[in-house]
Amino acid sequence: MHILVTGGAGYIGSHTCIALIEAGHTVVVVDDFSNSHPEALKRVETICETSVPLYQGDVGSRALLEQIFSEHNIDGVIHFAGSKAVGESVEKPMLYYRNNVTASQVLIETMQHAGVHTLVFSSSATVYGDPHSVPIAEDFPVGATNPYGRSKLVVEQIMQDQAVANSAFNAIILRYFNPVGAHASGKIGEDPNGIPNNLMPFIAQVAVGKRSELSIFGGDYPTKDGTGVRDYIHVCDLAEGHAKALETLHGKPGAHIFNLGTGAGVSVLDMVKAYARVSQRPIPYQIVARRPGDVAQCYASPDHAKTVLGWQAVRSLDDMVASSWRWQSSNPHGYREA
Ligand code: NAD
Ligand code: UDP
After folding, report:
1. Is 2-182+232-262+302-314 in CATH node 3.40.50.720?
2. Does ligand 2 lie within 6 Å of residue 228's CB atom?
3. CB 3.0–4.6 Å: which of 78, 96, 139, 188 could bond 89 by disulfide?
4. In the structure, which protein residues have their CB atom closer than 6 angstroms to any atom of ligand 1?
């Protein structure tokens, strides 16, 4: 298939381009580099030994999308482009509704006009809010607690409405748990701007000596060791899940929702210990107050994806940590030094 990947230079998008190319598909990328670096795509091209056509610009631009659909015979779109920082979404909700919701609406309208019917959307486990129990299945109640999460829920709803109205439309909604790790080559990985919000890139920067210690947000949760529990999934497993979803569901209209997680709960302290062991670097930490809005535990039931897509995560926690460390230690300043 010929796939348009929006946000293809970003963390998950760049890994997914590789998974798609390795699975025999061709890709076209649109990205405005608002949260990524052109070097990421150059490295994708090096790893895959192929060129990746790039359109630099805003995915919310109808004219740009029309140009892409007229210049390429696109079979489906994977839509990663968007803004993803929860705290920023509280401060700048209009930015989040424009970049995540309005741009997605323009994309769906342009797809319809171009006769492209398959859309894979990056949703998030954040749409489950504080789950009443774990593991979380796709039919659990949804409800977001911040503008970022609400923007994801609104796009999910828009896609489901479109699938009702347009009997050809194929809405594939993937709710990611916690993507971590990097490509096995160590050439591409997560490269956050400024101080990382997320656990894994923060630990990686402590291990490489860029930050002195990790603050662990809360040691008194009702979990096995008091720290928060999440479902960390290797970004390459996640990327392969996208290829599987496209291959299995292309040409099957309707709305399809899947959790993409491992089904295993890992605590913050589990992750710190694994990183210290694999990197053979000390990870100094201090337990501080809980972070507002955090839930105690969040992990997926991965059964639906396994049954319908024939996909499950295969990489271990050590694979996640070792690949993160390979990327971080060989690119201590991310793509910026390239
Ligand atoms: P990322 O920021 O690394 O990638 C997003 C890419 O989209 C970047 O390359 C950015 O430059 C680009 N972009 C942003 N706005 C754009 C616009 N208007 N036009 C064109 N390009 C634009 O983020 P990521 O971690 O790869 O996440 C990808 C998607 O997955 C996002 O939609 C995010 O909300 C979702 N998601 C991420 C996580 C996570 O933990 N990383 C978890 C759940 C869901
Ligand atoms: N966390 C932490 N210190 C940090 C960043 C995160 O203790 O500097 C914890 C956080 O409280 C949560 C887990 O690590 O329990 C995963 O947080 P992350 O922000 O990576 O993902 P999310 O909150 O989206 O699940």
Report:
1. yes
2. yes
3. 96
4. 7, 9-13, 30-36, 58-60, 80-82, 84, 99, 103, 122, 124, 176, 179
Chain mean position to CA 259: 12
N-terminal to C-terminal alpha carbon distance within the chain: 32
Q: Residue 103 corresponds to which tokens in the numbers above?
A: 């741009």
Q: Ligand 2 centre from 336 Cα, in Å?
A: 25
Which residue owns the Cα nearest ligand 1 atom 6? 7
Q: Is 215 in the pocket of ligand 2 (CB under 6 A)?
A: yes
| Ligand with minimal distance to 155 CA | 1
Q: Which residues does residue 4 pair with via DSSP β-bridges, in sequence order?
A: 28, 77
**For the chain, domain boundaries:** 2-182+232-262+302-314
> What length does the chain have?
338
pLDDT in tens, the chain (338 residues): 999 999 999 999 999 999 999 999 999 999 999 999 999 999 999 999 999 999 999 999 999 999 999 999 999 999 999 999 999 999 999 999 999 999 999 999 999 999 999 999 999 999 999 999 999 999 999 999 899 999 999 999 999 999 999 999 999 999 999 999 999 999 999 999 999 999 999 999 999 999 999 999 999 999 999 999 999 999 999 999 999 999 999 999 999 999 999 999 999 999 999 999 999 999 999 999 999 989 999 999 999 999 999 999 999 999 999 999 999 999 999 998 75
Position in ligand 1 atom list of the atom nearest CA 34: 11
How far is residue 331's CA from residue 322's CA, in Å, rounded to a whole number?
14
